[in-house]
Amino acid sequence: MITPTQSTTQTNTPTATAAQSKTSGLASDFETFLLMLSAQARNQDPLEPLDSSEYASQLAQFSMVEQQVQTNDLLSDLALSLGSVNLEELASWVGMDVRAAAAFQFDGAPVTLFAQAEPAATSAVMVIRDNDGTVIDRITVPTNETEFAWAGTASDGSPLPDGTYAATLESYDGDELLSEQLAATYHQVVEAQVGEDAVLLTLDSGQIVPAGTVAAVRTGT
After folding, report:
1. Arithmetic mean of pLDDT over the chain
2. Cβ-defined contacts of 155-158 (< 8 Å, 24+)
3. 138: how many CB neighbours lie within 10 A of its CB?
4. For residues 159 and 56, which has the higher predicted lDDT (pLDDT)?
5. The pTM is what?
6. In b/e form, how buried is each residue of 41-54, taking b as 16+ CB within 10 angstroms?
7. Which of 110, 147, 200, 214 would bridge 98 by S-S if both were Cys, CB 3.0 to 4.6 A apart?
8. Residue, of 65 and 23, whose pLDDT is higher
9. CA–CA dist 101, 214 (Å, integer)
10. When comparing pLDDT for 149 and 66, which is higher?
11. Dist. CA 104–CA 186, nearest whole Å
12. DSSP string, 66-116
């Protein structure tokens, strides 16, 4: 049975010691390079001295390497910082109740379903399916309501066992089917992970949804 209801970072940063170590390392390398360049100048062939432009070229090459090393260090620090932010974001999802369109876990208590019929619909039907996709019940609902309380009973009124179910709202204009919309409900997030281009949330029903499809969030109960 369905009845309408009333709407109702801590980031990691390099320490001063680590920064000083990197700087001193670069300074030491530069001093070594100058010593080698000086030795090269002292021991060059007087009859064929090294062209001054060659010295300038070597200095420029070392400067480029030095800048690249510093850039790599900054990128590494940035990656660590972003990584810690992602971990904090993921941790904040776990244990929260999120409203998303997905199959839901039924534990014997009434479930609030969220769905809206097409504006042109003259009638609407909420279709309840079990985990195997078998239709358990088809319930006519008002087209102007967006929240419905499902009691967790079959078409004959008998209580259904705990398990995973899904609800789909079908909108009709007369006998013509306008659309089928998977109803949303609240789910508890049991895991959050970074996907290829989005944060993915694993729900208590076993469904996985992108965080961007979540319509509402509330403290887990």
Report:
1. 80
2. 157/1
3. 12
4. 159
5. 0.60
6. eeeeeeeeeeeeee
7. 214
8. 65
9. 8
10. 149
11. 8
12. HHHHHHHHHHHHHHHHHHHHHHHHHHHHTT-EEEEES-EEE-SS-EEEE--
